[in-house]
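Handout, section 4.2: multi-component inputs.
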Amino acid sequence: MKNSLIKILLIACLVCPACNKMLDEDIRSQVVGDYLNTPTGWQSGVNGVYATLKNVFCAIEDNGIIPQITVFGTDTYTNGFDGGFKMMNFYNSDLNPRTNVIYSNWRNLYVAINACNTVIDKADLVPGLSDDVRNTRLGEVRFIRAEYYYLLVELWGPVPLSLKETTTIETEATRAPVKDIFAAIIEDLNFAIQHLPAVAANYGRVTKPAAEQLLANVYLAKATSEAKEADDYSKAADLAIDVINNYGFKLLDDFGKVFEQGSGEKNPEVIWAIQNNKDIISNGPGNTMHLYFLMKYDDLPGMQRDIANGRPYARFKPTDFVLNDLFDRQLDSRYRESFKRVFYCNKPGTYTINGHSVNLKAGDTAVYLADREYTPEELSHIDYNVWPPSKQNERVFPTLTKFLDPQRVGVNDQPGSRDLLFFRLSETYLTAAEALLMSGRPDEAADYINVVRRRAANPGATPEETEANRTAMEVSPAQLDIDFILDERARELLGEGVRWIDLVRTGKLIERVKKYNPVSAANIQPFHVLRPIPQIQIDRTSGTFEQNPGY
Amino acid sequence: MLSSKQFLFLLVSTVFWLTGSAQNNPISGRVTTGDGTPVSGVSVTVKGSASGTVTDAEGRFSINASPKQTLAFSYVGYKAKEVLVRDARNLEIHLEPSDNNLNSVVVIGYGTQKKSDVTGAISSISEKSLREVPVTDPAQMLQGRAAGVEVLNTGNKPGDGVSVRVRGRRSFNAGNDPLYVIDGVPITGGLNDINPGDIESMEILKDASATAIYGSRGANGVIIITTKRGRLGRTNVNYNGYYGISTITRYADLMNGEQFAEYKRESRRAVIDPVTHKPLYDDSDPNADSKLFEPVELQSIASGTYTDYQRLMIKKGHSQSHALNVNGGSDKTKFNVSLGYFQDIGIIPGQDYTRYNTRINLDQAIGKRFKLGISSLGTYSIRNGMDVNPYGQSSDFGALTENPLGKAYDSAGNLIFLPTSDGLRSNPLAELVPGAVINREKRLRLLNNIYGEVELLDGLKFRTSFSPDLSESRVGNFRGSVTNTRRLGTPSASTSENFVFDYTWENLVTYKRKLAKKHSLDFTGLYSVQTHNLENSGASVTGLPVEDMQYYNLGAATTIGGVQSAFENWTILSYMARVNYAYDNRFLLTLTGRADGSSKFADGHRWGYFPSVAVGWNIINENFMQDNNFFSALKLRGTYGRTGNEGIAPYQTNGLLIRTQYDFDGAAAFGYRPNSIPNTNLRWESTASLNFGVDFGILNNRISGSIEVYQSTTTDLLLPKLLPISGGFESVLTNIGSKRNTGIELTLSTLNVTSSKKGGFEWSTDLNLFTNKEQILELSQGKVDDIGNRLFIGQPAVVYYDFQKIGIWQLGHDDEAKQYGSIVGGIKVADLNNNGVIDPDDRKILGSDVPKLAGGMTNRFSYKGLDLSVVLFARLGYMIQSPVLGNFRFLSGRVNQYNVNYWTKDNPTNDYPQPNSNQESPIYGSTLSYVDGSFVKIRNISLGYNFSSEITDRLHAEGLRVYFSVQDPFVFAPYVSKYHGIDPEFPTNSTPPVRRFLLGLNIHL
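Output:
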């Protein structure tokens, strides 16, 4: 018996030291933070920063600045019929600190900024990286961080400014002055401009001209902020002009080709684009912009939902101002090229259309959104559904073509494969024009804006006619004012997710929304130039965290 | 071998019998308990005569009786037993412990104890109670049975489990599930793999002294399951089976077609077009209907025929269970073998659960001092439809929300896939077409326990046991083209697999000793290792060429949606020692110490130490109590101890990265970004608890029961602290704050009517009532509310904190409504701080999910062979959040919903706001969702008949019983009567609850 006891004790003694080792964690399928301190890990951290662009700008539902908070509630877009996020257009009491979409975008930006901060902080710890690679990648990441702070300051005003990786549990946060935020943005972008190449080694990475474009935009914004300085506009102008002159970018001849899907996404007009592709696994959330501008076509006679036509969220409807007043329909090709007005039958059958029975075959015109009224007599000869302006409504309206994605796999698939063309050269011209106009140089401003306008002219039957149209599109310096610049930006950049920020920057949000968007006009107040600080941020911060006025 | 004396005796008896004598013969025998322990002092009488005797120290007796006479055996603490003599000469009698008795044996951690010696708070559920309600998951057998134990269904689908809470919630994040121990082996996960029929008893250890022995994982209580083992004696064959039909308990009170049409109109009347200044539905416009409704809706309105998707979908369900059990044993070998089959086919086609079980328990004695054995559980189950929800409360899809103005079938009886043009919706009945939707889990589990035991000295035993627990589950998913997910696109499929290998290795030393008659000492020492290893993998694809492939050929698909695998492990090392000391059966003392090391915590914080002490005083055994006739049992108990909780996911002390997706010009560029903040201080959450209990029996145990009072304080709570996102992280798991649970529990068993005659009318009642008060004491900022986390000092962990609805804004109050952020016809919320606007400070705590009182009651009646039992349970005084009132698209005029009394210009109610097609959900809509959750449920009514021995004898059976039972026949709840709900126990019901009618049969051969 004694032997047995001794044996037990012996076993216990032998086993224990080995067992204590069993308490060390064995991590296999997950990656710990230290990985970012290795050269490949750090580079993958840079990729991780790029990936945040999708969530911030163009991902689905609770994500994405553009799908939710910078398109409608402006002079160019109002709400369609689908219920989603209408408070952003209504400016009613549903737009409050508890609004989910406000928080989700705020969250996405700060999660992304921490990803940037982490990569930036670790840069010097990573062995075996050449200075060149290190600085180029740093430039890319600092560009992205600058873009995020630019959005934050434009949407919310003073916000917490963090430029260091969060490594400890932090429950305090304070709103930094707008001035400090602009200073940080400018410092990031100056670093980027200094270190980024003119042409990226991999298409899709940030380049020097992209950083200059962003900095130009930042100076435009700063010039109307409480941090403004006298030379903001001239700096913006210089940067924009540098992008125009020195990198070989070129406007396409045909505005309609700028948004061609596939290889057309890479064209000489694109300064920088957020990348998406058709491989589901690397595309992730993808670009969901194809959903929101599409009218509700799938319940109309002769139509059903299919991949080619898309999944209609019908969230954004152009305002009557856009449809009726913004474009010179005779001269400006952008009126025609920006909208899809025809749907071809994909559900053959016999339907009663315009009061008579019609047998629609696949490919026949089924729906036409006219830009004028039709008489009953005219209609009686037409074998498809005509929707004149008077009949157009929250469900049926001209669809913006820029983002349509007929190359998805499933009819209800949300992730799309199109690149999001983030900076285009035409925007640079408009940035230059605005900066020059505001610095009291209208003649030069007219020169830049006219480049964009000439390109947009409708082609004529002959070269002479085309040239005549182009000339007719030109504006004189005397015609230029900030409203004209805004109109031109609306025509060129319609739906591209910059409108709300454009209006706030130029101080025109309230005025133009009241004038052109009757739905928003009912409720919009001067305080709406800032978004509400999410209540969650306030609730979770120890100490006080000020709400924006009015909310 | 028979001794020569016995042989002679047998021979003589045989001769007597052969001569056909009907005289009284000497009968001898032995009385033992189930496990073979002899019982001395058992009274043995010949029924109807004056003769009687008692058993000796070895349990033996000898008495004279004729073959037609009956011997009656009785002993305190055991069920009386009667045996017809017939031709027996040597009887082996096994006495079974009686219920409600302080002298029965209960299973405690790593051992058993006489109930009178128990010092901790333990609820023991007898086999009889366990058998009363046929269940799927053994944990359901605890429903309404034990004070302080709350068992709630987590779903109504076949195979759905339950949530078990012992004495409320302590933890926020580290889990509140009790630890399950099956035949001594702590397992991970619930009990769903166990065949309820294999279980002999269940014990719930509630206080720190009882659970401290399981230190690391005992904080949430321990449920000990003992399965049937073989016993010395004849071989028993038992068959238990039932067959049942289930029907929906009640249909949800939805709008019919007419009501829906009107509600849709109203939702447009509420919206004024900003341009035309007319309502979107203009009653003055004769064509208003044709502008609002689509052709199929107009047709339905015109003809007055509507589609009731609920009733088209719900069918009758069926369930059946068959269990065969054979057990027996000799001096050396004892065995128990059982086979089980269970099937539950739900009321929604495509939802079912089938389980096959085997169980083998074998104990073998080798010589006098060695023993070894094995317990083996094998389970194979198939479950369909666990993750699909065509009934649904999702506003995007499902029978509950489908527009009743659409048509489900065309005139030829073919299913119409898109009954309306709503782009999100499709016919929910299309999901039920065989082969359209497959969602299947196949699960295999092998849980074995192999032990060896050696008695080194008298009273000193060493036992080592190794328990591998292997489980493999495979889930296959398929969605055909004509389903809501695919909407006529190509089919999609996915598979995933989980392989789990856990093992526990325990080494146990026990020493029992009686010193100088009055001192008894019982020592237990333990060293154990537990590990958990999980591997999983999965893939998902779209674009399958043929529907028939289902999920069996993912490689044939055109597109890979994702490929994934993962690994997870953790380890716990433990040392434990316990001393039970009793003096003169009067004073009891238990000391326990346990040290546990867990890999989940940060280096330097891995070991937790969990001591406990318990004292007991058996007052009934005091001299001064000997003459009292009132108390038949009386004991006081007090315990104090500390237990731990480590029920968090592993790897949380590390800062982990999340993988990201991107590409550059089509070339994949996967990356990583931070996903969690490292917390290098993560440590054990621990609970210190104090428990006082009194056990009593009055009037010869006609009334018996116990009262427990406890207070437990949990500190270093493992809590995901929600952070201001401006730091880049939403939350971090930390040890912060403390929490207290205080409660009183009453358990009472009464024999209301007893009969001195066998077969007379008898009525007994088991009652348990308990209340548990949860209070947060401290949070990360000290005694300061954490509004962001919805945690408030002095309140339970789950409270509903929101604005308070006080009515609906009525006509003429436009300006006021606007001032308070609402509209006429919209919800009016209280301006609590009276500052003229609704701001965050107007939110308040509306209620919590902790009931003020809960309990259960079982009444049993018997007369002759008939027995009737009624099981009832109740939770009173708490709040639930209904998922369908006020949620997404509620009153938006798009989807169907509960037929609530909503506001219109002509119906100035204060109940529900006006439908409004411009709103995803009503302004302040969440205020509608908080409702009283109180309910009283009749869980089961069971009527059984035991055939008399005349009949069973003819069938050569020992026992034969048939029973009929109804499960969940009635519920009384405001959620049902006032708020249109279906089931307050499980408000988020994706499948409605059922009422079951069962017919069962038990045969004992």
